[in-house]
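Q: Convert this sequence to C-alpha cells.
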Amino acid sequence: MMKKSMLALASATVFASSLAQAAIQEGTDYTVLSKSIPQLQQNKVEVLEFFSYSCVHCYHLDPILLKHSKSFAADTYLRTEHVVWDPSMLGLARIAAAVNASGTKYQANPAIFNGMFEQKANLGDPETFKSWAAKQTSFDSAKVLAAFNSVNNPIDAKRMQDLTAQNGIDATPMLIVGGKYRVKMRDFNQGMQVVDELIAKVRQERGMQAAAPRVAPKSIGAAIAKSANR
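A:
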C-alpha cells in the first residue's frame, strides 16, 4: 500500500486459504471504521476506493478492481475518490474528478496509469495533463478535457481533499464497503473475495433482498462506463 510517507513497495504475499471455505473474520479480513463514511446512494451497497494515480499499488489493483466491479449485482456500485494529502496532489485529484464526471473510468484509467508509470509523464501538472490527454485515442479525451476544464472540477478536487482529511485516509489503495467496513488486503484476489462477502454482509444487515445480476448494456464504450460508474 502507498502510505502518506510514500513508503517503498511491500513484498507481495500469497494467500493460501480459500474464503469459500471459511467466513471472513473481523480483524483478519476487515476492520470496522470508527466513523462511517456516508454513501452517495443510500439505497445501494457502495464499494468505495481511495486511491492515487501516483500509487503503484493502485496501478496494479485498478484493472482487477474495475473488472471485478462488472460482476457487482444491480444493488451495488463502485465509487472512487482520489486522496489529497497535500496541495501538490490536487492536480491528480482534478484528473480523477474529470474521469468520474465524464463516466470514462474504464477507458481512461489504464491510459492515465500508463502515462504516470510507463511514460513517466508529470500528469499532476494541469498543462502537461491537457497536452497529454489531447493526444490520447483510447478514451474520449474531449469529454475528459471538457470535464477537467469545467467550473466544478477544482471544487470536486477540493472535496476529495476534504474527504481525505475528514476520514483520516492515510494509505492507498483502501477499499471500504457499505461506508463502514475497511478491507484488509493481503493480495488483490483475496481482497476481491472479501469485498464480495462484505457486500453480502451489508446487504443482510440492511435487510436487502438478494439482487439480480447487473445487466450489461448492448452498446459498448460510454454506456458501459456510465453504468459501471453509477
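The helical segments are 56-69, 90-102, 105-117, 126-134, 141-148, 152-166, 188-205, 222-228.
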